[in-house]
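Lay summary

Proteins are chains of building blocks that fold into shapes. Our project writes down both the chain and a compact code for its shape. Here are two examples, one after the other.
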Amino acid sequence: MPKYSPLRTMNAEIKERWVKALRSGDYIQGKGALRRTEGGIHKYCCLGVLCDILAKETSHKWVKNDVLDTPYGDMLATQAGKDLYTPKDPNSKGYVSSSLPSTDIVEWAGFSKNHNWLINSAYYEETLYDINDRGGSTFSDIADLIEENY
């Protein structure tokens, strides 16, 4: 049961897979982008791990972003080499960003409409990407927060 709000929900099966992936040790934690590739090594935000789960079972592909909102971060697109970026409306279908999962991924994961990636941490409400990027929280810590809040 969510600690903060029963309105914050997601698909239970995907949540279980996401939490398992975060704890697996298969992902290197990174900051500032869903996935960043440095020296051939992929580093993931906790939300990037969720995106990678989708990428491994669908036609979604990681593509390099060197001009959009987070330079040198990777984006998840529906077809390799074809991004559907819509710069003026991040809530539109097909929006692709290297910073946040697209609306397609939000729908696939079954998030409630007002998800905002908010969780109730030890002290206050904050976003999963802030917890990931400020440091100090491991993927395992974030997995605990996801279990408690979704």
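And here is the second example, written the same way.
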Amino acid sequence: MSYFLLKLFAAWQGVSLSQMAASSSEGHEAVAKLLCDAGAAKDQAAKDRQTPLWIAASQGHEAVAKWLCDAGAAKDEADKDGATPLSMAANKGHGAVAEVLCNAGAAKDEANEGGQTPLWIASFKGHEATVKLFCDAGAAKDQADTYDNTPLSMAASEGHEAVAKLLCDARAAKDQADEGGQTPLWIAAFRNPLRSFGIRGPLRSFGVL
């Protein structure tokens, strides 16, 4: 398809050329390169302020994300809710894309409007490999959201034993309470009375029990 036809099709879809390339599921890397080489704006966002890199990260298109990062795309440009490309990779469990963004220098501790960092989101969703990536990359392990919930609190709340162990191994604060005074152990015991027994192992080994 020629550049002119691509441009017409993108206009008909109501997106920029670079966004169309980022969201395509087949041959997207080659098309993204073609469009950027032809002068398509790498950081042109849609009405929700979602940039091509944001879309690539959200959909797990590792190759496109890497190419856009290498081409100088803005790595920390957030959407209307304050979610960055790295936040979206964390949310969807796209560990390979998260690694690309971290290696490209994306802000690991940039929070959305709710104060939720990429590590917080990955911990809440139970994406073990992504949590490990962030911990190894030096992300802030105890940065809380607007309600003072930490990544460990969220792992405890959702019963994510493996994630809780990773955070404990990374020396996350085990007794940091939320705005209601509830610690990770309290949350695990109250909200998940059956699964909390699995959560207690990592916490016990670090002196909480």
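What can we say about the second shape? The CA atoms of residues 3 and 35 lie 7 Å apart.
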